[in-house]
């Protein structure tokens, strides 16, 4: 294909501003998906994606579109909108020349609108500003066109107004993509160089790799080489998604498509790597992407211990498709065998957990998530702590925690409430700007641990849902952090240890000890439940002794009923965990962890 007739673009937007709906409409208008095959959010393949209405994996689709009698090939690369998946957005952007910046005409610019716009600008993309959902009665296209024009420069009159729902304006948008976006440029006679921007594991076909060809050409049956590892593979199939995979006789300059080499693991086809021709390799690889870094760690345990091998297998399978997922085995006295798993954020955790439970039929319990700490001990050694149990026991010189720079957008009436919330989360205000007369952008430096869990929910509830948040990791700071242990009759229960700020240690201790007192049944002896920092006890509860006599309930003489009860009690015992001499039903641990 002649690069002059190719246009590569992506749609970037804040979550729920209607990216997938608009993409659907484009697929329909360009005829690549027939009416009768159309289902909502065609590009979101995974069930979870469809149910939650969010896009996780990027996909690329080729669509034909004619302008002034010339047939063009538009490659649309779908991107996820949630902050956890920003790293996928940046890879998609690197494969495009332009971006449609989509903004909900009833909401205006939100935090991820800005974050994505800045990413697009860093990638030198041409931006087409578009207001969506103009069919909504609450839409204020004039107001937000001015806001958008003000943000990216230009005339409010040039902001396109569309509705992904009704299809209004979408044809003009396709025309504008052809007219305004530059055609890709590359050297067709140079050795082949193609950028891997996504790699997906498919049960039937193995790894399907999505590439954007920059120079030269890739053809079927030739041998290609991964430039970072020098590994070579035969190209079994190469083609374009339109949107079903369609084999072609090669991909040239500027083209976007997929290839299959028969490898089984996405790590062998690494996102960000450059593919070249083995017989005639390129001298230099293309600039790659940074590897996604896990931010949040949590222990994942099967509720039924015999599911441990199944959990390992399931994680191995998910990993084929999710380069950001990291895990290693760990054991807990309370929960048995499980894994320490690293995630990009809480949404990523939730999705992985849900996929494990649903697709692999596992019942899981996850421990309270934590961020990564760097701890320097008295002998000047530094350890990286991804699990509270790794926290050094001796004297600690310094603990460092990861920080983020956060951007919050909201109507100005909520500024006070937002500042109060950020203050209570150890935040440090960096800037405050007015985007328009009634909307404010606040920038804060905050500890990751303070925002990664319930911050967004709090923010939403304090601003009646109007605030939006975006953040990115930015350095670390020394902080007054301690490890709080929970002890049952003097024995530490590892699953409940937590690293918290000193000021919050006491409330964590009180909360956990009183929760456990409710959940742990009485034993034949008194059981103290304590919270401690090192050897210092900061909270204490007692479970009084009682002799539990299940037979006391059946004062009749019904022997079968008695036997049943005794058997039931025995079954219950099996699911008991011993902490020292204390018998704790596993459900108590699970309840204590999940009601967090
Ligand atoms: P993510 O993929 O999760 O980032 O969301 P998205 O930006 O793709 O949004 P999506 O297309 O899922 O749309 C979000 C919601 O807005 C859905 O309930 C859509 O039905 C609705 N919606 C999308 N476009 C329009 C539109 O043009 N008009 C109206 N009225 N509703 C729309």
UniProtKB/TrEMBL annotation:
InterPro entries reported for this sequence: EF-4, EFG_III/V, EFG_V-like, EFTu-like_2, G_TR_CS, LepA_C_sf, LepA_CTD, LepA_IV
Residues engaged in binding GTP: 16-21, 132-135
GO function term, MF aspect, one: GTPase activity
Major localization listed first in the record, in broad terms: membrane
Signal sequence segment: none
Protein name: Elongation factor 4
Organism: Arthrobacter mobilis
Domain Tr-type G: 4-185
GO annotation terms (biological process): positive regulation of translation
Family matches, as Pfam families: EFG_C (PF00679), GTP_EFTU (PF00009), GTP_EFTU_D2 (PF03144), LepA_C (PF06421)
EC nos: 3.6.5.n1
């Amino acid at each position: 294909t002649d690069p002059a007739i190719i246009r590569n673009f992506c749609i970037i937007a804040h979550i729920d501003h209607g990216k997938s709906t608009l993409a659907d409409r484009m697929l329909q208008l360009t005829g690549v998906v027939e009416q009768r095959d159309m289902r909502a959010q065609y590009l979101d393949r995974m069930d979870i994606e469809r149910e939650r209405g969010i896009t996780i994996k990027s996909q690329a689709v080729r669509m034909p579109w004619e302008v002034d009698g010339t047939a063009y090939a538009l490659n649309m690369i779908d991107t996820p909108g949630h902050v956890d998946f920003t790293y996928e957005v940046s890879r998609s952007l690197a494969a495009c020349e332009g971006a449609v910046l989509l903004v909900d005409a009833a909401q205006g610019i939100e935090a991820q609108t800005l974050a994505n716009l800045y990413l697009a600008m860093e990638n030198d993309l041409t931006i087409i500003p578009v207001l969506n959902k103009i069919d909504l009665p609450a839409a204020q296209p004039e107001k937000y066109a001015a806001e958008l024009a003000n943000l990216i420069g230009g005339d409010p009159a040039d902001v396109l107004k569309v509705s992904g729902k009704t299809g209004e304006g979408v044809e003009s948008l396709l025309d504008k993509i052809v007219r305004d976006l530059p055609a890709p440029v590359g050297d067709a006679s140079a050795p082949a160089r193609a950028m891997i921007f996504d790699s997906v594991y498919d049960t039937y076909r193995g790894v399907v790799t999505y590439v954007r060809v920059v120079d030269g050409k890739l053809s079927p049956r030739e041998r290609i080489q991964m430039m970072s590892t020098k590994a070579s593979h035969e190209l079994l199939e190469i083609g374009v998604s339109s949107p079903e995979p369609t084999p072609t006789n090669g991909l040239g300059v500027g083209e976007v498509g997929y290839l299959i080499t028969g490898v089984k693991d996405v790590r062998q086809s690494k996102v960000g790597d450059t593919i070249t021709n083995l017989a005639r390799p390129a001298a230099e690889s293309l600039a790659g992407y940074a590897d996604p870094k896990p931010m949040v760690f949590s222990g994942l345990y099967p509720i039924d211990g015999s599911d441990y091998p199944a959990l390992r297998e399931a994680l191995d399978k998910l990993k084929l498709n999710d380069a950001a997922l990291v895990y290693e085995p760990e054991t807990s006295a309370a929960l048995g065998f499980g894994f320490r798993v690293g995630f990009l954020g809480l949404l990523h955790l939730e999705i992985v957990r849900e996929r494990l439970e649903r697709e692999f039929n596992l019942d899981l319990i996850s421990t309270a998530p934590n961020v990564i700490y760097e701890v320097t001990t008295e002998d000047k050694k530094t350890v990286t702590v991804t699990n509270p149990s790794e926290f050094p026991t001796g004297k600690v010189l310094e603990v460092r925690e990861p920080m983020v720079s956060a951007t919050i957008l909201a109507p100005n009436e909520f500024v006070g409430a937002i500042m109060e919330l950020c203050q209570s989360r150890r935040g440090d205000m960096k800037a405050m700007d007015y985007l328009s007369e009634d909307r404010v952008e606040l920038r804060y430096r905050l500890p990751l641990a303070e925002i990664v869990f319930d911050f967004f929910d709090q923010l939403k509830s304090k601003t009646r849902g109007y605030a939006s948040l975006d953040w990115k990791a930015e350095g670390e700071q020394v902080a007054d952090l301690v490890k709080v242990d929970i002890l049952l009759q003097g024995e530490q229960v590892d699953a409940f240890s937590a690293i918290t700020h000193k000021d919050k240690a006491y409330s964590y201790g009180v909360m956990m000890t009183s929760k456990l007192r409710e959940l742990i049944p009485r034993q034949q002896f008194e059981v103290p439940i304590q919270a401690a920092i090192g050897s210092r006890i900061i909270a204490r509860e007692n479970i009084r002794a009682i002799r539990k006599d299940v037979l006391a309930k059946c004062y009749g003489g019904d022997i079968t009923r008695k036997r049943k009860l005794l058997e039931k009690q025995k079954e219950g015992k099996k699911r008991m965990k011993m902490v020292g001499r204390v018998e704790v039903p596993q459900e108590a641990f699970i309840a204590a962890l999940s009601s967090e």
